[in-house]
Amino acid sequence: MKINFERIEIFTDIAKTKCVVQDVKKDFADIIYQFGRGIESHALALKIFNSKGETEYDDRECNLIRQLSELCAPSFMDAMKKVLNE
Known about the structure:
The protein is 55% helix and 14% strand. It is of the alpha+beta class.
């Protein structure tokens, strides 16, 4: 699956009527680096941080992205669920 962490749509209200497009690349990579476990998390943090536009992520990486996004604000967690389900 291809994900562009430089352009993630995040809803700013619970009714999901307003959203912003944000570059979350550095912030999410930092979260993975701080709270992830093991070499796979380390590699994923670096891959996201160094990505340019749409980048391919395999199923294992997508599962880690899903799990680690649950450490973030609910709006970001919902945004990642949407990206991963498209």
